[in-house]
Amino acid sequence: MSEERRESSLFGEVRRMVRTSGAVTGIAARVAGERYLGIKTNKDSHAEDLKAILGGLKGPMMKVAQFLATIPDALPEEYARELATLQSNAPPMGWAFVKRRMGTELGPDWQKHFSEFGQEAAAAASLGQVHRATLKDGTRVACKLQYPDMPSVVEADLRQLKLGMQLYRRMDSALDNEDAYAEIADRLREELDYTREASHQRLYDLILADEPTVQVPTPIDHLTTRRLLTMTWLEGGSILKRLDEDPPLEERNDYARALFAAWYKPVYRYGVIHGDPHLGNYQIRRPTDGAPGGLSLLDFGVVRIFPPHFITGVITLYEAVRDGDDDKAHHAFEVWGFRNLSRETMLVLKKWADFLYEPLLEDRVRLIQQSSDPTHGRKVAEEVHRGLKATGGVRIPREFPLMDRAAIGLGSVFFRLKAELNWHRMFHELIEDYNEAALAQRQAEALAQARVPGPVTAPVK
Questions:
Q1: 272-274/303-305 β-pairing
Q2: What backbone phi and psi angles, to 5 degrees, belong to 288?
Q3: pLDDT tens-digit profile of 50-67?
Q4: CA geometry: angle 453, 454, 458, nearest 5 deg
Q5: The whole model's pTM is what?
Q6: How many CA atoms lie within 13 A of 135 on its CB side?
Q7: Which 3 state secondary structure label does DSSP give 373?
């Protein structure tokens, strides 16, 4: 890295720290004041202040906040709830930036590749913005351009996140989230490389090739770099807007089946998970001419490749819940990465597993959740948190956050769809004849064919 670029990166980090540190340290002081000095504070109000401060910043804080909302006890509940609602409301970068970025990535004559290129951003992402374009052969594409200086932005945000989690851990937490933080950090660093995201798109295209209800964008390799991802444009609509129109049950079930296949076939057949089941990361395609409704799956920056033995542990935990076998549950949690579990702590964790696996136990058509209370999951989490406090706490393994995020995130979507399906049979169709060695072979072949690079475990410079 040149001295000029290194200096620019350093100043970028300093600016980022200055803009966010006041919010984080202010929250720490407020929580400490209530905890140790008995000073009552309005945490809901402070959480809204934090969202207002961070919501206008470009960068990964929105995505980090969404992760935190699904990691039990990572931050005080009021803050996690408010941060989870963050949306990218910063204005998009203008045409001058777009021309510079495109010229840097594809050369000064970059426009020769396109017959049309939209000057206005069509969408905003956490690390970049998307522009509509058309190739010379008529192919409609989306060009995702990374915002300036994002590696330093990511590192600054991660340091602030680590500080906040450490402060809260010292004050009042039943969970040790150090490994969960490392997982978030590595996935965000990977997300900076758009050539990696292109490989994830190829991977999912391979895995879901025989799933007609799920579409995946195709990367245009010769127009893709680390900071520019060019891919086919996929049409679709908002699932929330469609739900406002009160679609029939059959259509809602179509969307639920497509979602189930899109997330869980990769998990149980290949040990791969799309780690961001946010509503903005897929679009629905309404049924036409007798064809079922489907979805377009978007944004492949956060993808987790699990070791095959971890998937075996996930299935073993399901069997333990199904059979009421506490010894098998203890073994499964150890395979997941939980260490030195006392029996009391394990039984508390099993309450969470009971909640997650409950829809899969009954061989009948049903709603994903029997309770009509949308806060039921939160209440279960709070009960588990209280139990873990009483038993001395637990260290969260790296593999837990994305798996838990997918289960909770998708469960909430299925709940909003009011889908009525036989979840038991759909799950068993995926795990029947499960064999760890066969999964390992499928995974290795798919990763090689899609040209997926190895994981990132150090800061990207």
A1: antiparallel
A2: -140, 140
A3: 555 555 444 555 566 555
A4: 120
A5: 0.83
A6: 14
A7: coil
